[in-house]
Amino acid sequence: MMVHNEDLGLTLSLNFPAAGDTNPMPPLVSSSPSFNFPLITTPNWSDSCPSSSDRHNVDAYKVETRSFLKGIDVNRIPAPAAEAEEEAGVSSPNSTISSISGKRNERDLPVNEIDGERSSSRGISDDEDGENSRKKLRLSKDQSAVLEESFKEHNTLNPKQKQALAKRLGLRPRQVEVWFQNRRARTKLKQTEVDCEFLKRCCENLTEENRRLQKELQELRTLKLSPQFYMQMAPPTTLTMCPSCERVGASPSEKSIDQQHNMARVTTTNQIHHRTLPFNPWSTPSGQVVQRQMSALHPRS
DNA sequence: TGTAGCAACACACTTACGTCA
DNA sequence: AATGACGTAAGTGTGTTGCTA
């Protein structure tokens, strides 16, 4: 299986998935206060992204026995180290399924077996003892393809999955872990770019809409100031409302309700200098545009 | 029951290396 | 051949979470 960079699942779309769709690339949950766009991300995206507390539990073993792609040619296999690390991580400490309270039972393992993976990420490079200190490994396309396949299934790995994947690819578990971290970062970056583009378009649309409304308002004001228009206006209307039946008598020609009910008079005549026009922004085409934009921002509302 | 210590993890940020035009 | 841009593997710092004493 050959993949190219543009095939690695980084093609994101502004299209909102249809109901029931599962976005293959859900936004990642960040524990740190990062810049995100909650209005843009669709709800089912977050539904498909488990929280950090349970992400290891449900999805972890769902695909565990999933048959990966067929054997991979490895460009480098640190066989002894890999074997040691495989033995170290099989206990799946994060799983509440395999071990109820064994989340951190890697502690029980000998030190030299525990931290072959971890030490490499915290200063004690496992390459430093060797001939290649931080020699950058370029993953083969087959390895990348397998990792991509796995990432599509679940964008995080529990230790057991990590071990299995590492063993399958002939990589160190740390390498698999790093690959998934970087992959999640790339996904998030891509999603952020898409979100920014979407918001940019929203801003442009709203700016244009605002411009149009300002223009419309100006025209209406101009129209209002013309005497011809003013003469055509109906006299101020006095509405009366019955406090008991809450009926409103609007027409001056009608027998007023207050005469019938001896009620208080509610004057809606504009007692301000600028008489407003019967203009409902939500019923105008512009309002429809705004509503469309609002519904785009809140797809479920 | 509350809490400190620890380990494991994820993420943001950065560095360093490989590839390509 | 040299070089800068770019992609990405890997290192580092920090916050969170769950377990244990």
From TrEMBL:
Keywords linked to the UniProt accession: Coiled coil, DNA-binding, Homeobox, Nucleus, Transcription, Transcription regulation
Protein's UniProt name: Homeobox domain-containing protein
Compositionally biased spans, kind Low complexity: 91-101
Composition-biased stretches (Basic and acidic residues): 103-120
Coiled-coil zones: 189-226
DNA-binding region ranges: 132-191
Classification via InterPro entries: HD, HD-ZIP_Homeobox_LZ_Class_II, HD-ZIP_N, Homeobox_CS, Homeodomain-like_sf, HTH_motif, Leu_zip_homeo
GO function term, MF aspect, one: sequence-specific DNA binding
PANTHER family: HOMEOBOX-LEUCINE ZIPPER PROTEIN HAT14 (PTHR45714), HOMEOBOX-LEUCINE ZIPPER PROTEIN HAT2 (PTHR45714:SF16)
Family stated for the protein in its record: Belongs to the HD-ZIP homeobox family. Class II subfamily.
Location of this chain's protein in the cell: Nucleus
